[in-house]
Design goal:
heterodimer; A: alpha/beta; 5-stranded mixed sheet; 4 helices; 5 strands; B: alpha+beta; 7 strands
Chain lengths: 116, 566
């Protein structure tokens, strides 16, 4: 399977980090996303927000990445949140019964306002 | 059937008498505004004020009877829901045509024809949807609004209409402004009954501005407070050249009845999943019987009232008992000739304002129906050319006058002509559209975008709902993603998709093993800690997303059937 297009951009907001995703998340790029998140926690990030605003599509492989990231955050005594989960992507979270499994904020700004 | 939490008195429950009567009065007030449709038809036939008042009283009796009939389950007739009847713009273009060509006898005769036709098509509705797809229903709804609006404006602006005085313009402006303002900024009852309040404001302004003629006041004065409508002067005639316009009106009424009764089902059942066609068929039969009854006793066609069902949902009172109250209130109003006379002398400025207010919602509703489907080039051409054809007939009346007389009822009416152009092009463009399409995916060249494009382009050719196509797209992309490394062993993965108006089926086959599709979601721990957990999650989501799923393994191949209701 050709690798699906997924761009990841880190945006610093003071002490916090936003990982803005663009494209599709599936099993072809899930490992890459896991590695990126793990690297950020290993580097000492204490609050990581993954922004879904530009995510077009995801499969169940994405859920595994996010659940593993939640574990990794706990191990690193860090906080982990999602933002801008809208439309079809949100429907998939809902269908998977995973809306309650994560801290989800309406926007990146709202997520960063919860730094306490 | 499980009563939703927002419904206070469900269809089988009995509210207190006071609540029942008050709700009935609200419905009657909402429905009464549509008396402008028969009024317009009776005036087009040159009927006297006295006769119009009598016919409007008959109309009110029919509305009451139709509402009660719809709430019953008498033999095969009646949906059993509180689904009031109203006069409708659906039959307005064809009834106006009949009024001009053959007077009221032709209107009544053709209304009987339309009602009987609706009862005949009720059991065939499922099959009709193929030649009458949803986007053409949207076009028909739009053109009903358009042609009703034009018919109203002709009362003021046609070359043979009496010149409009400054007072009349003022009354029309004030009536429309009152309706629009109450609708846009009003709250509660004021917003819900904005058309009725606007109508009252229009009458008051017309009286103060001297727009109502002296002779018309005397007709109201002469009318009694209590009296029984007369059925003695009703007669009927038929004209085969008007069959097409009334048949189109009948199909449009049947389609609207399907929609309204479906809404009734939804608002009364928290567990509602899909339309119960049995109650819909019974409801359409009741709708047809009511229209035929209307023609027999001397009024125009009726149809289910979507706004009334909306009112029932908003108030949380959907009890069948309210239908009986509506029937009784309409019967009481029909026994008051003075009220009917007041309606009969409605100034044209007020009537046109009320009509324009109503058709706005009809036209936009039509556009929303069109927008609910994916449209490819063929469907866009079908709709676009039909809109242009309908508009051209209204802008250039010479088109209608230049065809042989027998074709005039078809070509001279924008509503009928646009619908026939759309139906003809739809049949033509069905040539070459495959109902079953396939795509082979190579193991080394999986491209989710290609799968998405495959469903999107075929969905547009079929005129499918975008949300259903999106579900099917997710199902296939999810399956391919889940099986590609551990389950799909070699060869191509074959995707076959087939569509009809009610079903979207997707069949997938590949060499290898089938996924497991659990009823319960795997735990977060299972998903996190093993690939198996992730695969179970994929299977769970596929099962959850599809309306039906069937999986099997045979001769080393895995087969998956996904069904989506449409």
């Amino acid at each position: 399977m050709a690798k699906s297009s997924l761009q990841m951009a880190e945006v610093r907001a003071g002490q916090n980090c936003v990982l803005a995703l663009t494209g599709r998340i599936d099993s072809t790029n899930a490992d890459e996303l896991t590695a990126r998140v793990n690297r950020l926690f290993a580097a000492g990030e204490k609050y990581l927000v993954v922004d879904f605003k530009e995510v077009l599509y995801l499969t169940s492989a994405a859920f595994r990445v996010l659940l593993v990231a939640t574990d990794e955050a706990e191990r690193s005594a860090a906080r982990f949140a999602l933002s801008s989960v809208f439309g079809q992507v949100r429907e998939l979270f809902e269908m998977g019964g995973l809306l309650d499994a994560f801290t989800i904020h309406a926007s990146r700004e709202e997520a960063l306002a919860q730094t306490g | 059937m499980k009563k939703p939490s927002n419904i206070i008195y469900g269809v089988e429950e009995s509210p207190p008498l006071f609540v029942t009567i008050l709700n009935g009065m609200q419905h009657v007030a909402l429905i009464a505004i549509n008396l402008v449709y028969p009024l317009l038809v009776f005036r087009a036939a040159g009927t006297s004020v006295d006769a119009i008042a009598n016919l409007l009283a008959i109309g009110m009796l029919v509305l009451g009877a139709a509402t009660v009939l719809q709430a019953q389950r008498m033999g095969p007739v009646g949906s059993g829901y509180l689904c009031p009847s109203t006069f409708t713009a659906t039959y307005l273009p064809s009834s106006l045509l009949a009024a001009r060509l053959g007077g009221l006898p032709l209107v009544f005769g053709m209304t009987i024809f339309a009602g009987l036709l609706e009862t005949a098509v009720a059991p065939l509705l499922n099959r009709l949807r193929a030649i009458f797809p949803i986007e053409i229903s949207g076009l028909v709804i739009f053109m009903i609004g358009w042609s009703a609006g034009i018919a109203g404006l002709r009362l003021l602006l046609a070359t043979d209409a009496a010149p409009v005085s400054a007072s009349e313009w003022a009354v029309a402006g004030l009536t429309l402004t009152a309706m629009v303002a109450l609708n846009a900024w009003g709250k509660g009852l004021a917003q819900m009954l904005c058309a009725l309040f606007g109508l009252v404001a229009g009458y008051v302004a017309a009286a103060l501005g001297g727009v109502v003629e002296v002779g018309q006041w005397s007709a109201i004065d002469a009318a009694k407070w209590v009296g029984v409508p007369s059925f003695g002067h009703v007669s009927w005639s038929f004209d085969a050249t008007l069959a097409a316009p009334f048949a189109i009106g009948c199909i449009a009424a049947a389609l609207k009845a399907i929609g309204t009764i479906t809404v009734c089902q939804r608002i009364n059942d928290a567990d509602w999943v899909r339309t119960d066609m049995r109650s819909v068929t019974r409801g359409v039969l009741a709708d047809g019987v009511s229209t035929a009854l209307g023609g027999i006793v001397g009024t125009v066609g009726t149809n289910t009232a979507t706004t009334s069902v909306g009112l029932a949902a908003a108030t949380g009172v959907t009890s069948r008992k309210v239908a009986y109250a509506i029937g009784a209130i309409f019967a009481a109003l029909a026994l008051c000739p003075k009220l009917a006379a007041m309606l009969a002398v409605m100034p044209r400025a007020v009537l046109v304002a009320a009509l324009l207010f109503a058709v706005t919602f009809i036209m936009i509703n039509g556009l929303q129906v069109i927008a609910s489907r994916l449209l490819d080039g063929r469907r866009i051409l079908t709709l676009g050319l039909a809109f242009i054809a309908g508009g051209a007939v209204d802008v250039f009346p010479i088109i209608g006058r230049s065809v042989p007389k027998a074709l005039s009822p078809i070509v001279a009416s924008s509503f009928v002509f646009a619908t026939l152009v759309a139906l003809t092009l739809n049949l033509l463009f069905r040539i070459g559209v495959k109902k079953t399409v396939s795509l082979d995916v190579e193991a080394g060249a999986i491209d989710p975008q290609k799968i998405e494009d495959f469903f999107k382009s075929n969905g547009a050719k079929w005129g499918a709902r975008p949300e259903v196509v999106a579900k099917a797209t997710f199902g296939v992309v999810q399956l391919v993603d889940a099986v590609r490394s551990d389950f799909w062993q070699s060869g191509t993965l074959d995707i076959k998709a087939s569509f009809d108006e009610f079903n979207l089926n997707v069949d997938l086959a590949y060499e290898g093993n089938a996924l497991v599709f659990p009823e319960q979601r795997p735990s977060n721990k299972q998903i996190r800690e093993s690939e198996d957990g992730a695969h179970l999650m994929a299977g769970y989501m596929l099962k959850k997303c599809a309306d039906r799923l069937r999986s099997q393994e045979k001769n080393g191949k895995a087969f998956l059937h996904l069904h989506y209701d449409h």
